[in-house]
Model the fold of this input.
Amino acid sequence: MSGSPKRVSSVTQVSDHAQVPYSVPPRPAGNNGGDDGSTSRKSSSSSTSKGHSRSVSVGSSGAGPSESRHKRDGSTGAENTASTGTRTPVSAQNREVHQLALKVMRLTKPRMHRTAPVSCEAGDAGVDAEVAEAILRDGNGSNTLFGLGALCTLPQSFGSIFLGEMFSSYLSLHNESLEECHDVSVTAELQTGNDRTQITDTNASKIATLGPDKSLDVVVKHEVKELGTHLLVCMVNYRTAGGDKKFFRKFFKFQVYKPLDIKTMAYNVENEVVLEARVQNITQTPMHIEKVAIHASALFEATDLNVVLAGDAGTDPVTTFDTMKYLKPQDIRQYLYRLCPKNDSPEIAAEARAATAVGKLEITWRTNLGELGRLQTNMLPRTPSAHPTIETTVLDVPGGVCFGESFQLQCQVWNRGAQDVELTLRELPEKMGNVHFCGVSNRSLPTLAAQKHMTIEIDLIALSTGLQHIRGLALHDRRGNTLHEIFNLPDVFVTS
Done:
């Protein structure tokens, strides 16, 4: 389809370490679209070609014995009403003849014609090198071994409809009688579960008078947003030359399948999230992937880790898949994104750490002769990592210290909890290395309010030369009687 329709396809929620949990309905054994089983069905095997489009007949309703009434159990059929608006008996319906015939066809683009290439080598008997070269090339100088010719093949079946693509249908209402019909209108609506959507243009699908052997043609388009069974209901209203009001409708059922299998994994790295998305083509045709992007939630900013070289002004960046635009059937691609909190404020950082949704994934692709498809997932979930209530970050440490001389380690302590804490700085003798406290141990610190931080200086002394790791320090919460060991301590180089 040409253009860029604004489509936001509803995809059920993606879970961590799991695939998108929407199911694919089983494919029907026969034609996906067709008549609803009415007695007057005409199986039209002819198809119409117009430009680069193909009209594949779904079903037709002609002048003849009318269809049976729509069954209460939901089975498809056709329904006829007289001018009074009441239903006529079944026997009367079977004898009723309509002046108009309705045909419904799906519009699809043609396929490239494939041929089995016949090669010829110079060493073949009776063929010289110049003749072999001429056989392998056409009049334009291109190699014919590619298998695609200059011809297109019109589709001979209803085909498959995938989520995120555009469904186009051609409705043809033809007057097969010798009399004029007045106030003619055709209405199409698409039913999916409990949802009904009218897809016909009100002005284009009406005509005041339809003469004999004349047609009312309507093209309808609809963005496919749901999986599963879809029911196309076509309703026709008209008035005969004698003033009688007539009505009939036809039902056409088809399935919508998912084109991609999406799996995600979310990795928590401190305050950041690394998102891995695996996209698999589960159709039978190659796809040209135009865009795979992440739309981060309000708490995060996203960075595309698939970009190898950032583009200049007016140029696109170079990505890891620039040389592999096509995704073959059953092929898988992996995309990486980094999501960071929008700012360094404690409130935003705390909300980002506790967030269970990180953003939406949007994928745009084209198939065959440029048909556009686009999917957007629901919010991608992740499992928040268990962060400690007390967090300690090293702010400053000397690059080198002297043996036997004290030095200071500057740290920032955050209270991530909802209650105030009273902390004591302690040493853990069993975990101490060659760097020890210098001064008073078990030093009490000021009360730290909830979601606040403070800066402390720790006096240390090195008792051995060389590269020494600082360890064995902890903060004790006197109110909660919990011990929080400090793990992210640096190394210092000690000289004599």
About this structure: Residues 1-93, 138-146 have pLDDT under 50 and may be disordered. The first helix runs from residue 90 to 95. The first strand starts at residue 10 and ends at 11.
